[in-house]
Amino acid sequence: MAVRHHLIRTSPQAVWAVLADGTRYAEWVVGTSESEPVRGQWPQLGAAIRYEVRFGPLRLSDETVVRRCEPGQVLELEAKAGPLGTARIAIELRPWGDDCLVIVDEHPLRGAGGTIHNVGVEALIQIRHRAMLGRLAKLCESEAAERERGRPLGQVVSPQHDAGGARA
Q: What pLDDT was estimated at residue 108?
């Protein structure tokens, strides 16, 4: 199984805000060129987004379905990839001081992806996850920096209890 983690220098709530927006999937998922909600209220159980992957002139369009959601903590998805089959992608958010530790665990469920799954495929998934988590971090951290710039000078912000950040 391809498991990778990344420390994102913003709160779990800020990371969850990006994950919970089905229209932003293509901004951080490597290989995805477009995404849009097609069913249900993302990221509620059973909700789906349609995505498109492009390889030069070739295009693959399919959907990703929410299979488990614990708001602010866990998002488990089933990504469908046509003839390649489906994969389970679990994303866990853990508070780490004032930051967020993101853990991604992906493995094939059905179809050709499970049949051809081997060490080489695992290495490619690791490379993809590294890039994907880097994109997610850049997106979340730049939005946090933008919020910080918009804050009035001299305003002190203290973490709220149970907000996932540091506690007094």
A: 85
Cβ-contact 32, 54 below 8 angstroms:
no
Instruction: Please give the sequence-ordered ranges of beta strands (E in DSSP) within 9-85, or none if there are none.
Output: 32-39, 48-55, 58-70, 74-80
List the chain residues with pLDDT less than 70: 1, 112-115, 117-118, 153-168
Whether the ω angle into residue 43 lies within 30 degrees of 0, i.e. cis, is yes
CA distance 69 to 44: 6
Dmax over Cα atoms in the chain, in whole Å? 58
Report the pLDDT value the prediction gives residue 63, as an integer from 0 to 100. Answer: 94
Residue type, 16: W
Work out whether the CA dihedral 151, 155, 156, 157 comes out positive or negative. negative
Instruction: Record the tokens describing residue 139, joined without a space.
Output: 């997106």
The model carries a pTM of 0.82
CA 47 to chain centre: 15
